[in-house]
C-alpha cells in the first residue's frame, strides 16, 4: 500500500510511503481507496490540521507527518466483521492513501461507522461510511461529482439552512467571498429566492467564470466592497482577511454577522480579530448537521439533502479530469497548494 505523508510544518513537503498491504484483523475491515476528489477544502484540512484535529483521523507513518483527508469511494477488500461484506462499495472520509483499516461499528444495511479509538472523539459525520446502493445521494454516473462536491454541498446546505432559519439576522444581503469556489457557489444556489440578495466577491481573474454561473444576484471583483450595501451577512468562505477588513470598513454597523467558513492558507484570520458583540462566528458544518439530524431524524435530513442535491446536479459546472495513481495525486496536491486552481476544473483521482 502507499500513503501520501506531508510534513505538518510545511504541508507542501510530501512523500509517498510504501508499506505492506494490511489484512483485516479481529473486528477490522480494510477499505481499498478507489476514487477521490481534491479541492481547496482539502488544503484547509491541512491548514487547520492541528486546530481542528484533522490530522487525528488518519495516523501518519512518522511523527511530524500528517495524512490529508479526502472524500470519495472505497471498496471493502477484506473484512472480519459480520455484515461488512467484501466487495461493498462505500462513500466517506478517506486518507490520501491506497488503503484504510477501520473497526466497523453500528453496522446496518446502510453502512457503518469507524469505531477506531483514535477517531472516537472526532465529529461523527466524518466517521460514517455509507454503502452506496441504499444511499439517496449516490448514483453510479455521478461519482466524480460526488467526490468533488458532496462535502461542500452538504456544508452549503446546512449553512443556507442556518441563514434562512435565523432570518439572515435581519440582513437583506448575503455577501460571499471566494465566490468562485464550489462551497460559495453551492451556498448561493441554495439561497436563491430565500429572501436575501446574494452578492459574490471574487478575484478579477475569476470574475467571468463566477458571473457565468448565473447563481448570484451580483458578482463583484475584490476591491469593490464599498458597493455592497447593508444590512448584510458576510460569509468568509476560504479565509480572506483583506476582504473581511474592507467589508467591515464599508458596512460598519450594517455588517450584522460575519461567518468564518474556511481558511485555505492562513493559519488564523490574521489581522482580523473577531468583531465584538458576537458578530463573528466560526461555522463548523458538522455541528449544524448534528443539530438538524436530531431535529429532523437521520432519514429526514438525508431526504432533504438528497432532494436539494438532485436539484443542483444538472447545473454543476465542472469540466472533470480523472487522473490515475499516487504520483498524479501527489503532484495535484503540490499544485493545489501552489496557487488557485482553475475554477470549474474538477480534478478526481482513481487508485
Ligand atoms: N466550515 C466548514 O465546515 C467547511 C466545509 C466545507 C468547505 N469549507 C471551506 O470552503 C472553502 C472553499 O473550498 P472549496 O473546496 O469549495 O474550494 P474550490 O472549489 O477549490 O474553490 C477554489 C477557490 O477558492 C478561492 N481561494 C481562496 N484562497 C485560496 C487558496 N489559498 N487556494 C486556492 N483557492 C483559494 C479562490 O476563489 P476566488 O478567486 O473567488 O477568491 C478559488 O478559485 C475552503 O476554505 C473550505 O475549507 C468549510
| CATH topology name of the largest domain | Quinone Oxidoreductase, Chain A, domain 1
- CATH top level label of the largest domain: Alpha Beta
Sequence of secondary-structure elements: EEEHEEEEEEEHEHEHEEHEEHEHE
Helix content: 25-40%
Question: What Rg is obtained from the alpha carbons, in whole angstroms?
Answer: 20 Å
Q: What count of structural domains?
A: 2
Provide a quick synopsis of the model.
By secondary structure, this protein is α/β, with parallel strands linked by helices. The chain has 7 helices and 18 strands.
Main attributes?
single chain; 351 residues; alpha/beta; Quinone Oxidoreductase, Chain A, domain 1; Rossmann fold; 2 domains; nine-stranded mixed sheet; six-stranded parallel sheet; 18 strands; 28% strand; globular; binds NADP nicotinamide-adenine-dinucleotide phosphate
Describe this structure in words.
It is a single chain. It is built from seven helices and 18 strands. The chain has helices at residues 40-47, 143-165, 182-191, 207-212, 241-251, 285-312, 326-338, and strands at residues 2-7, 14-18, 29-38, 65-66, 69-79, 89-95, 99-102, 104-108, 111-114, 128-131, 173-177, 197-202, 218-221, 232-236, 255-260, 280-282, 319-324, 345-350. By secondary structure, the chain is α/β, with parallel strands linked by helices. The protein has two domains: 2-135 and 318-350, Medium-chain alcohol dehydrogenases, catalytic domain (Quinone Oxidoreductase, Chain A, domain 1); 165-285, NAD(P)-binding Rossmann-like Domain (Rossmann fold). The model has no long low-confidence stretch (mean pLDDT 95). α2 packs across α3 and α2 packs across α6. It starts with a strand and ends with a strand. Strands 3, 5, 6, 7, 8, 9, 10, 17 and 18 form a nine-stranded mixed sheet that branches. β11 (173-177), α3 and β12 form a beta-alpha-beta unit. Bound molecules: NADP nicotinamide-adenine-dinucleotide phosphate. NADP nicotinamide-adenine-dinucleotide phosphate binds next to α1, α2 and α3. The site of NADP nicotinamide-adenine-dinucleotide phosphate has 30 residues, from α1, α2 and α3.
Amino acid at each position: 500500500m502507499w500513503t501520501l505523508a506531508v510534513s505538518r510544518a510545511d504541508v507542501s513537503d510530501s512523500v509517498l510511503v510504501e508499506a505492506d498491504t494490511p489484512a483485516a484483523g479481529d473486528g477490522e475491515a480494510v477499505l481499498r481507496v478507489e476514487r477521490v476528489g481534491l479541492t481547496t477544502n482539502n488544503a484547509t484540512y491541512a491548514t487547520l490540521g492541528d486546530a481542528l484535529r484533522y490530522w487525528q483521523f488518519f495516523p501518519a507513518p512518522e511523527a511530524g507527518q500528517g495524512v490529508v483527508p479526502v472524500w470519495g469511494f472505497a471498496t471493502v477488500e477484506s473484512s472480519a466483521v459480520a455484515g461488512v461484506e467484501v466487495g461493498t462499495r462505500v462513500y466517506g472520509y478517506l486518507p490520501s492513501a491506497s488503503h484504510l483499516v477501520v473497526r466497523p461499528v453500528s453496522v446496518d444495511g446502510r453502512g457503518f461507522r469507524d469505531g477506531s479509538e483514535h477517531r472516537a472523539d472526532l465529529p461523527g459525520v466524518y466517521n460514517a461510511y455509507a454503502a452506496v446502493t441504499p444511499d439517496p445521494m449516490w448514483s453510479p454516473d455521478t461519482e466524480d461529482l460526488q467526490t468533488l462536491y458532496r462535502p461542500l454541498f452538504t456544508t452549503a446546505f446546512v449553512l443556507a439552512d442556518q441563514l434562512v432559519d435565523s432570518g439572515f439576522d435581519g440582513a437583506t444581503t448575503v455577501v460571499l467571498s471566494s465566490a468562485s469556489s464550489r462551497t460559495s457557489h453551492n451556498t448561493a444556489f441554495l439561497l436563491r429566492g430565500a429572501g436575501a440578495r446574494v452578492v459574490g466577491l471574487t478575484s478579477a481573474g475569476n470574475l467571468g467564470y463566477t458571473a457565468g454561473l448565473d447563481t448570484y444576484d451580483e458578482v463583484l471583483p475584490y476591491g469593490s466592497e464599498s458597493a455592497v450595501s447593508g444590512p448584510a451577512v458576510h460569509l468568509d468562505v476560504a479565509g480572506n482577511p483583506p476582504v473581511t477588513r474592507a467589508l467591515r470598513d464599508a458596512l460598519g454597523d450594517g455588517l450584522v454577522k460575519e461567518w468564518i467558513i474556511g481558511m485555505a492558507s492562513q493559519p488564523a484570520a490574521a489581522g482580523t480579530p473577531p468583531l465584538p458583540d458576537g458578530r463573528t462566528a466560526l461555522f463548523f458544518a458538522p455541528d449544524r448537521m448534528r443539530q438538524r439530524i436530531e431535529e429532523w431524524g437521520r432519514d429526514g435530513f438525508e431526504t432533504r439533502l438528497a432532494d436539494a442535491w438532485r436539484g443542483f446536479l444538472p447545473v454543476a459546472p465542472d469540466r472533470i479530469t480523472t487522473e490515475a495513481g499516487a504520483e498524479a495525486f501527489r503532484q495535484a496536491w503540490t499544485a493545489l497548494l501552489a496557487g488557485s486552481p482553475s475554477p470549474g476544473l474538477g480534478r478526481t483521482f482513481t487508485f
